[in-house]
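pinging the channel bc i need a second pair of eyes. not urgent but kinda urgent?? the chain im working w is below, pasted from the shared doc
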Amino acid sequence: MRLTTRFLLAGLLFGTLASAQPIILFPGDTNNDGVANHFDLLPIGVAYGQIGPLRIPAFPNWAPQILEEPWDGTLPVSGINLGFLDCDGNGILDSTDIESIVFNFDSTQNIAMPPPLPYPLLLTDTCFSCPKPDFLITFSADTVITGQGMPDTLFAYIQYLYPSNVPPQNGALGIAFDVEYEYDPGKIVDAQTDVFPDLFPDDRMYVIATSTEAQFWRLPSPGSMGFATAGRGQNVFFGADTLFVVRFVIEDLIVRGGVEKFSINLTNFLLVNHLEQIVCPGAVKRESVTIVSTAAPAGPRVSVQLSPNPVRDMLVVESPETPLLRIEVCDPGGKPVLARTVGGLHRCEVPVSALPPGVWLLRAQTRTGFVLKKFVKIG
């Protein structure tokens, strides 16, 4: 009789465990859509600071891990258990969970439990009262020219633009999208393409993947990037600011206008607010440049170089071919905030430590004309 009772209890226990569907996760796939990528940053931003049970054992490798004790909470709209977000298993949702996204970037799976689903399909709530931010893509110079067989540099500035006076509750917590650009290995040295996120103010987290940085073996192909940024549990995007700056190393002449255009495109937008509601993006406004051969005829040019860029304290302005006469630093609207008479030097230093971080303009007057350049001031 005792033996029968034991078998009966064991059978009941096994049936209970089998009917209670276990949670099986892969570290880095926070939204359980079957792939670890930059979009997985957004759930961490929404639930930042939440605390739950430890996952034992916990390891960073891309392999199934059972969450023996599910978290009590879920994401407010998608309903994903917060245990999926605890990538390192330490029971706290914070910036350290981002490491698993980068470590396992672009890895895929289809055996998580509950089964993976596209994340946007789970976001069934849209914030219709939230304004749509526009996105602006500009470049650092009207003309970038290589010299003596050495490559030159072109900077691209990606900014978001909200209407004025948007209250924080109507802004966005996180922004994620894909970046595509026209890659020509004969003109762009993509191994040296680099991305500089705007680190001021210090209220944002980032995941950025390029063809040379993200993980050890699975990377975006040349000509593409993944970008995501998110606040820590609250909306941080409701004004106008720079998201990041891209540095391209160019092996040919670049001038405005012409035939062969070089441009950057932003696709696959996903914006959410602190309630995990979708925030609709506005328009993408972008400039383009043209790449032509250095053997192509060119008119008189004024070559002015800025370094370092981005800059923290001292900006060096150089004009190798013609002397500088006057330097003006202007805000993005073109209003001068600092001016200096140079007096015929080919090189001068401009202190910029007092400027707030962001994108600024430098207007240089030389003996052969004017040049307008952009630079990024970092904190």
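so The chain has three domains: 2-121, 134-292, 305-377. and Confidence is low (pLDDT under 50) at residues 1-19, 293-300. — does that match what u expected or am i reading it wrong
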